[in-house]
Amino acid sequence: MAQFLTSGNQTMVTEFLFSVFPNLYEGGLLFFIPLLLIYGFIVSGNLTIFLAVHLDVVLRTPMYFFISVLSFLEIWYTSTTIPKMLSNLISEQKTISLAGCLMQMYFFHSLGITEGCVLTAMAIDRYLAICHPLRYPTIMTKKLSIQLTAGSCLCGFLLVLPEIAWISTLPFCGSNQIHQIFCDFTPVLSLACTDTSLVVIVDAIHGAQILASFLVIALSYMRIIVVVLGMPSAEGRHKAFSTCAAHLAVFLLFFGSVAVMYLRFSATYSVFWDTATAVTFVILAPFLNPIIYSLRNKDMKDAIRRLFCHHKAMGGAGREI
């Protein structure tokens, strides 16, 4: 049951209700089981990639370091939304407190922006490795990789803070129903009983950040394609393209769905299409990322195989002792 607080002549909302989730015996269970399996795969798959990169000597390069960072972020990115979705699918009370909603929005968007920045750093890394191979080892050092990662986190966690702080001061009254699968800016702001036109300025800042990342990545890969096509060796072209294919696929999946969701300007979609778009970058993209990075990369597959073989060997040694 939703909670309200009376203030003067207005009834203030202290809880929000997710209206798009079905009840447990009206289809909720049919969504709960697949989503639980998907979430388990996302966590285990990304954790496996993270451990493989940091435990295998072969993968200790800037490219794999960024992949491990992305995998680590994916675990927390999905954990801000999917556990609550699972709870909503089997619980009669499909509610979230105002503070919980603000926290979910903050961490979801902070981690999402951080991922976008890391993807940009990965594009720069591939650009330097393919277009400037001789200078690459001296430019993309371990120190620079860590600095780019730290800068990505700083950008992600600071950029969203002013907007969340502003939303926390808004009064919410009347309807408390959120027509989305998680707390997001547009559906939450539509429930505020005051003028929220200031959000246009903040949205413009976020839009500029998304477009800047997209532009850097797009220009990097345009240059990479030109250089690769000019390589005399077919084997060299194939190797260069294969190292970039996984990152390019993740980039298109992530930025494509984010652009549809957040660069719509004045366009409005139905609840169904809003939900479908949200599912793409909240669930589908994190689900496909471990598959893309492991199946498309021989070194990663070999490292994961060695990781599990080492674990089995250690287990067998333990039983013998």
TrEMBL record:
GO terms for molecular function: G protein-coupled receptor activity; olfactory receptor activity. Keywords: Cell membrane, Disulfide bond, G-protein coupled receptor, Glycoprotein, Membrane, Olfaction, Receptor, Sensory transduction, Transducer, Transmembrane, Transmembrane helix. The keyword Oxidoreductase does not apply. GO terms for cellular component: plasma membrane. SUPFAM superfamilies: Family A G protein-coupled receptor-like. Pfam families: 7tm_4 (PF13853). It is found in: Cell membrane. InterPro entries: GPCR_Rhodpsn, GPCR_Rhodpsn_7TM, Olfact_rcpt, Olfactory_GPCR1. Gene3D superfamilies: Rhodopsin 7-helix transmembrane proteins. The chain crosses the membrane at residues 29-52, 64-86, 106-124, 144-167, 210-232, 244-265, 271-295. CDD domains: 7tmA_OR6N-like. Its main location: membrane. Residues 45-293 form the G-protein coupled receptors family 1 profile domain. It is a multi-pass membrane protein. PANTHER family: G-PROTEIN COUPLED RECEPTOR (PTHR24242), OLFACTORY RECEPTOR (PTHR24242:SF379). This is Olfactory receptor 6K6. The lineage of its organism: Eukaryota, Metazoa, Chordata, Craniata, Vertebrata.
